[in-house]
Please model this.
Amino acid sequence: MLANSSRRGPGRARSRGISALVALSTVATLGLTACGDSDTTLRTPDGEVISTVTSRIAGVNIVNADRDYAKTCLAPTATDPGRSDTSRVIVTDPSLLDAFCALGIGNKVRAVTAAPGSIPAYLGPELGAVPTIGDDPTADAVRAADPQLVLGTPSTAAELSALRKTGALGDARIATVQPGKDWRSLFTAVADAMNRSAAATERLGEFDAEVKRIGTVMDAAHSQVSLVRFTPDDELLEGTDSFGASILAEVGVQRPAGQRGADPVVVTDANFTEADADLIYVSAEGEAGMNRATSVLDSDRWKEMGAPSWQRVLWINDDVWYRSSGLAAAWLVLNDIKSSLNSSSAGE
Model:
């Protein structure tokens, strides 16, 4: 297995900070609950707990390690002229929440028919605090949300049926949006349902203008970036269909020859060096993926490739780049590209 080739050491990142990174939170509080002399919590003189940021894994810098997800969502948008606004919404599919965030109307979501922990952390504390009432909610939970609108997708028909069975929807309007072929179509569909079509067009225009500007300023067309993702089962060369890869393509960044197909390719002894490029973005899925990553990144074979030898390897957030989509997430990926395309992992 590649993960075992020429190891210099175990290279396993076991700190609580790295575990927090996998869960999308890069800030690791070093406090313990003990009291007295056994309390090793770092505090300011007035007693406030001090937090630290995990900024490197296996000697590789993390892109935007100190990102504040409270700033992910954009400013509030207005309704289309002559259209009414909706103040209270139950969402049956968490994939719709990115659009609410990007439109600046996350405060209108009063409940999500999903399990606790289903709301992506990158959406920030406002949406993270929305009650998750499960896929079989109680009538009391629905009444507490008091929805004017229930918004879902065809894949969440069962959740919508469960809401109806509670008998607590009252006069709430029910709407279903079609995901479409990409994240843009889903964003505009949610905006249409919330009477914000004009705002959606403006927001997408702003993003596209910045993509074009960054591509030109950073001379993206002359940069070749490799995407290497470590999962619990494999080391992958990502293709072009993943969310983060699509944003790279919009900016104009080039990909290595072995990564120009749509689907990811499993790394083997035969294609190991196809991971190399001017810059390599690496990420890991879960703790098992992290263990695989740190082992490979500590191997002689990895370090002998061009980008690692030039310290041109950087960590990106796996959840944002690969397990999310939407305009809010697209801005996070674009900002990662802005701050790292011409960077390295040199120094501490």
Remarks:
- Confidence is low (pLDDT under 50) at residues 1-37.
- The chain is about 35% helix and 15% strand.
- The radius of gyration is 22 Å.
- The longest strand covers residues 225-230.
